[in-house]
TrEMBL record:
Protein name in the entry: MITD1 protein
PANTHER family reported in the protein's UniProt record: MIT DOMAIN-CONTAINING PROTEIN 1
Organismal lineage: Eukaryota, Metazoa, Chordata, Craniata, Vertebrata
Alphabetized CDD domains for the sequence: MIT_1 (cd02683), MIT_C (cd02685)
Region forming the signal peptide: none
Pfam families attached to this UniProt entry: MIT (PF04212), MIT_C (PF16565)
Length: 241
């Protein structure tokens, strides 16, 4: 298993998919270290240790390369969430980028509107996202939401729920600014420390829970997902976008 994982790391490395390659190198190294512990043949141990040393050196080089890309504003990480995959709660996707200096967040998503719908719980999802921001470690003071109006009779409910979220956030010293656009299409989230995350489905990439008392209803890490792609960028000019 360790050899196969490292082989995959090398393939990703050669394809310049450095973030994925780094993860595979790290997993492969851990597996190979376990093999070394279980091996009594000293010659094999020596060969394994040599290989592990080579892979560790390459992993460190990739780490430095990624850090440089971040500093230069050229960083790009892509995460592919497969159909029915679990383990992709908001903390998993965003916590890495919510550093202590984050004080302002922009959310652009046209579908923060329906509560009761066949497959969407978008307003609840937005609330869960806000809860994550309030928990920190960032010190968010302002959240800007740009979305579209719900259609028909759902608009009054949408406005009522958003107002309730706004009032609740104010109890934690957070201001929620809400704007609407009839032409908004793209979905993206930006932090004022320079991180920008684009999710194909926006915040609404979770599947409808099987019931109000089913596993995954409360813990989004356990909730199956729809297939989607997450792109993470870093830029020193976020506010100009």
């Amino acid at each position: 298993a360790g050899a196969e994982t490292v082989k995959r790391a090398v393939q990703l490395d050669e394809a310049s998919r450095f973030q994925e390659s780094l993860v595979c190198y790290q997993e492969g190294i851990d597996l190979l270290l376990q093999v070394v512990k279980a091996t009594t043949d000293e010659a094999k141990k020596h060969r394994y240790r040599q290989k592990i040393s080579e892979y560790m050196t390459r992993a460190e080089d990739i780490k430095k390369h990624i850090e440089k890309e971040k500093q230069d504003g050229k960083y790009h990480k892509q995460i592919r969430i497969e159909e029915n995959a679990t383990g992709f709660g908001y903390e998993k996707l965003f916590r890495e980028y919510l550093t202590e200096i984050v004080s302002e967040v922009w959310v652009e998503d046209p579908y923060i509107r329906q509560v009761h719908q066949a497959s969407r719980y978008s307003l609840y999802n937005f609330l869960r996202f806000c809860e994550m921001l309030v928990k920190g470690p960032c010190k968010v003071k302002t959240i800007h939401l740009l979305t579209s109006y719900d259609v028909g009779g759902g608009r009054s409910q949408q406005m009522s729920v958003l107002e309730e979220i706004k009032q609740s956030l104010s109890n934690y010293g957070v201001t929620l600014n809400i704007d609407f656009s009839s032409s908004i299409h793209d979905r993206e989230i930006r932090f004022n420390n320079g991180w920008m995350i684009k999710i194909g489905r926006g915040l609404d990439y979770f599947k409808k829970p099987q019931g109000h008392f089913s596993i995954g209803y409360c813990d989004f890490d356990l909730r199956p997902c729809h297939e989607t792609t997450v792109d993470v960028f870093h830029t020193k000019h976020t506010k100009k976008m």
